[in-house]
Prior knowledge:
Layout: H1 2-22, E1 27-41, E2 44-51, E3 62-71, E4 77-85, E5 90-97, E6 103-107, E7 120-127, E8 130-137, E9 145-153, E10 158-167
Antiparallel strand pairs: 1-2, 1-3, 3-10, 4-9, 5-10, 6-9, 7-8
Signal peptide: 1-22
InterPro entries: UCP014979
Organism: Deinococcus arcticus
Amino acid sequence: MKHNLFSAVALLCGLSLAAAQAVPSPLKLTASTSVVTQTTQNGKTVETLTDASKTAVVPGTLLDMAQTWQSVTRSDLRNMSLNMRVDPATTFRSAACNVSGVTTLFSADGGKTFGPAPLKKTVTVTENGRQVQRQVEVKPSEYTNVRWQLPLIKAGSEGRCALRVVVK
């Protein structure tokens, strides 16, 4: 009996795995982390991105952490979200996405809630000997997550969303 139950569970798991493998993802995602180097050439600032695995990364290094995608479906995709966590060993600087109509949202609570910048938080302060609560703006350096809401990804299109962070 135990053998038959095990066989049935193994068969169901195998079928589930086969079914999951039979449905390809509509997006091909590629993650990259690059060191951003800025130089001045002919009076203009030029940025160079170098694969972070091929150069020294020390505190103060500016990183470009990107998710690049390619739509591999024949149909347009609607209402997609792309989420990225700000690594705790870094400090958020900026976010960018090259998709038209994108909405960029931020979180300062580990991704529990998101909202447009500037985020607000409630703090308790002492005024005239009394504790009162105030709404204050969250500093971008306190952001923990970024979400890009992509209203439309055209079939066959490509895009890139990235964070700029500084290593602590």
